[in-house]
Design goal:
- The complex is a heterodimer of chains A (about 110) and B (about 425).
- Chain A is α+β, with helices and mostly antiparallel strands and about 110 residues long.
- Chain A has a single domain (about 5-95), classed as Roll (Ubiquitin-like (UB roll)), CATH 3.10.20.30.
- In chain A, about 15% of the residues lie in helices and about 20% in strands.
- Chain A is built from two helices and five strands, in the order E-E-H-E-H-E-E.
- The longest helix of chain A has 7 residues, at about 25-30.
- Chain A is globular, with a radius of gyration of 12 Å.
- The N and C termini of chain A lie far apart (about 30 Å).
- The model of chain A has no long low-confidence stretch (mean pLDDT about 95).
- By secondary structure, chain B is an alpha+beta fold.
- In chain B, the strands form four sheets. A six-stranded mixed beta sheet of chain B has the order 3-4-5-11-8-6. Chain B has a three-stranded antiparallel beta sheet with strand order 2-9-10. Chain B has a three-stranded antiparallel beta sheet with strand order 7-15-12.
- In chain B, a hairpin with a 2-residue loop joins strand 9 (about 320) and strand 10.
- In chain B, helix 12 crosses helix 14 (about 295-305).
- Classes of the chains: A alpha+beta (about 110), B alpha+beta (about 425).
- Strand 2 of chain A pairs parallel with strand 1 (about 5) of chain B.
C-alpha cells in the first residue's frame, strides 16, 4: 500500500496509506486531511484539491492535462510551477512516499 | 514538523456486478416491492420517514405505483451515478423513457445525453462556468449579497423566500447570463416546469406542461445569440460556435440548460440554508463566530435539505446492484435526499452541522453529470451566508412556514422571518 505525506501550510505533516488506483484527493478525503476540500468529489470541476508537488516527485506524477491546466488558473492560492489538482494524481506503487504540500486556502 | 500516521483507508465494497454469480455463490437477492408514491403531496409534506423506509427495505426496491426500481442508500445511489455506461441519461432523467415516449421538449444536450456526445457539450459549459470565471464574478456577487441583507435589515420583517432566496439569485444570475430585462418573470415558472416534468404524469406535471407555452416561447427566444448581452455566460456559450466546439444549432440549447437549472436550484439552496440557520440558532452562532464556515454552511444545507431530491437513469444492460438483479431498459429512481441522510454514510445525519465534512454528498449529483453550475451555486450561497453572518445577529421565524410542491425540487413557498441587526 503506497503512502502519501501531506504537509500542511503550517508545516504539520500527515502520512497516510492509499489504495492503489485511488486519486490523491480521494485518499486525503478518506483520511480527513484538512486542507483538501474536494467540493466536486473528484469531477475536475472545482479546483479545491490544489496541492504543490514536492520537487523530487514532480517528474513522477504525470503531466498536467489541458482541462486541469485551465482549472488551475482558478485556484484560490497562488499557482506555482508545481501546482496540481490532487484529483488528477492517480496513486500507484511507483508513487510510494509521495510528498504533497497543501496551499494556504482552497476557496 | 510533527508527523502523524493514520490507519489504512476503509474498505469500499463493490456495489455493481454484471453477468457473473455473486462472490459468495448466492443467487440474486429478492427486490422488495413497496407501496410508496414519492411524488404525492403527503410524501412531499414530510419525506424523511418514507426515505427511511426506502433505505431500510433493501439496497434496491421496486415502486409498484410507477413501475420503477429505486435506490435510497448512499452507496447504491453513488454507484448508479458513477456508472453512466450502465445507467444512461439519454433516455431521460425523469420517469418518461425517451425510447418509448416523445419528450415534452427537445432533450437537453448535456443533462439528457451520454458520452461521447455529452463529453463535448459538458466541456463547453465547464469552461464557461469555471473557477477562473467565478473569481471574476465574486466581488460583484458579494456586493449584491451585502446590499440585499442591508435592505432586508431596514425592513426588519419579510418573507425569506420571495424577498431573499428568490430576490438575491434574481439580482445576480440573469445578469451574469446576459439576459434581457423583459420577460424575466418567466424564469422561475419555466424552471418549476422543467423539474415537475421529471416526475410521473401526475397533476403537478400535467398542470405545469399545460401552462408552459408562454414560458417555453420566452426561453427559446432568450437563448438566441442576438438576445444575449456580450460577456455573459450565454454569449460565452455562443462564442464556442466560432471556435468549432459546438454548432450554431446546439448553442441555444446549451444556454437553455442554464435557464432550466441555474436559478430555481439556487433559490431552493439559499432558501434551505436560511431555513436551517433560522431553525438551528446554535449553528448560526457558530457560523457568526467563524466566517470561514460560510461556504460549508451552505454546502451542508444542500446535503441536509437536498433541493434536488431525485433523478432517474435507465439501464443499458442487465446489472446486479448489491445483489439485486435489474434488467436492461429499466428506469432506476435515485433518492439523492435519502442518500444524503443515510446513516451508513453520515454520522448523525439528521443534524445540520456547519462544520461537517460534506465532501461526497450527492446534493449536486456525482460523476460526469454532477451539477455543471455547482460553482455558481456555491458562490451565491457562500457570499449570502457570509453577509448574513456579518450583519445579522438573529433570524426568527415569525409566521406560518409553507411548503412549495414540485416533483423534483424541495423548498418553501413562504418563510416569514425577522432579522435582528448585529
Amino acid at each position: 500500500m503506497p503512502s502519501i505525506t501531506f504537509i500542511h501550510h503550517d508545516d504539520r505533516a500527515e502520512t497516510v496509506s492509499a489504495n492503489d488506483g485511488d486519486s490523491a484527493m480521494y485518499t486525503a478525503l478518506l483520511h480527513g486531511i484538512d486542507g483538501i476540500t474536494g467540493e466536486c468529489g473528484g469531477g475536475a470541476v472545482c479546483a479545491t484539491c490544489h496541492v504543490y508537488v514536492d520537487g523530487n516527485w514532480l517528474g513522477k506524477v504525470g503531466a498536467v492535462g489541458a482541462d486541469e491546466d485551465e482549472l488551475l488558473e482558478g485556484v484560490a492560492s497562488e499557482r506555482l510551477p508545481n501546482s496540481r489538482l490532487s484529483c488528477q494524481i492517480r496513486i500507484t506503487e511507483a508513487l510510494n512516499g509521495l510528498v504533497l504540500r497543501l496551499p494556504e486556502r482552497q476557496v | 514538523m510533527v508527523a502523524t500516521v493514520t490507519t489504512a483507508p476503509p474498505h469500499t465494497t463493490q456495489v455493481l456486478s454484471f453477468g457473473s454469480p455473486m462472490p459468495n455463490g448466492a443467487g440474486p437477492q429478492p427486490v422488495v416491492h413497496l407501496d410508496v408514491d414519492p411524488f404525492a403531496m403527503d410524501f412531499f409534506a414530510d419525506p424523511h420517514p418514507t426515505h427511511q423506509v426506502l433505505r431500510e427495505a433493501g439496497p434496491v426496491v421496486y415502486l409498484d405505483k410507477w413501475n420503477v426500481y429505486a435506490v435510497a442508500r448512499y452507496a447504491e445511489v453513488h454507484a448508479v451515478l458513477n456508472d453512466p455506461a450502465t445507467f444512461c441519461s439519454s433516455r431521460g432523467v425523469g420517469l418518461s423513457d425517451f425510447a418509448k415516449e416523445k419528450p415534452w421538449r427537445p432533450p437537453s444536450l448535456i443533462l439528457e445525453a451520454d458520452p461521447p456526445a455529452h463529453t463535448r457539450t459538458r466541456a463547453v459549459l465547464n469552461k464557461v462556468l469555471s473557477p477562473a470565471v467565478m473569481k471574476q464574478l465574486r466581488a460583484g456577487f458579494a456586493a449584491a449579497a451585502d446590499a440585499k441583507v442591508d435592505e432586508l435589515l431596514e425592513r426588519g420583517s419579510f418573507d425569506a423566500i420571495a424577498d431573499l432566496a428568490e430576490a438575491y439569485p434574481l439580482s445576480v444570475f440573469p445578469d451574469a447570463v446576459g439576459l434581457q430585462q423583459e420577460g424575466r418573470e418567466n424564469l422561475l415558472p419555466y424552471a418549476g416546469l422543467v423539474f415537475n416534468a421529471f416526475g410521473p404524469p401526475n397533476k403537478l406535471r400535467q398542470d405545469a406542461i399545460e401552462r408552459s407555452a408562454p414560458h417555453q416561447a420566452y426561453v427559446q427566444s432568450q437563448c438566441q445569440r442576438e438576445n444575449l448581452a456580450p460577456g455573459g455566460f450565454g454569449a460565452c456559450i455562443h462564442a464556442r460556435v466560432d471556435t468549432g466546439d459546438i454548432t450554431a444549432d446546439e448553442a441555444p440549447l446549451l444556454v437553455r440548460s442554464l435557464l432550466s437549472a441555474g436559478l430555481d436550484t439556487t433559490v431552493n439552496g439559499i432558501g434551505a440554508a436560511v431555513y436551517c440557520l433560522a431553525r438551528y440558532p446554535q449553528e448560526f452562532a457558530r457560523l457568526r463566530s467563524d466566517l470561514s464556515l460560510a461556504r460549508n454552511a451552505f454546502e451542508e444545507a444542500v446535503r441536509y435539505e437536498s433541493p434536488v431530491q431525485t433523478f432517474f437513469r435507465t439501464t443499458t444492460r442487465d446489472v446486479e446492484i448489491s445483489g439485486c438483479r435489474v434488467g436492461e431498459g429499466e428506469k432506476v429512481l435515485m433518492f439523492l435526499a435519502a442518500a444524503n441522510r443515510d446513516p451508513r454514510r453520515w454520522v448523525d445525519p439528521q443534524r445540520y452541522d456547519v462544520t461537517r465534512k460534506t465532501s461526497g454528498h450527492v446534493g449536486f449529483g456525482s460523476g460526469i453529470h454532477m451539477c455543471v453550475g455547482q460553482l455558481v451555486a456555491r458562490l451565491e450561497g457562500e457570499v449570502m451566508l457570509s453577509a448574513l453572518a456579518r450583519k445579522v445577529a438573529a433570524i426568527e421565524i415569525t409566521g406560518e412556514v409553507k411548503r412549495r410542491y414540485n416533483n423534483t425540487l424541495r423548498g418553501l413557498e413562504s418563510l416569514p422571518v425577522s432579522f435582528t441587526p448585529a
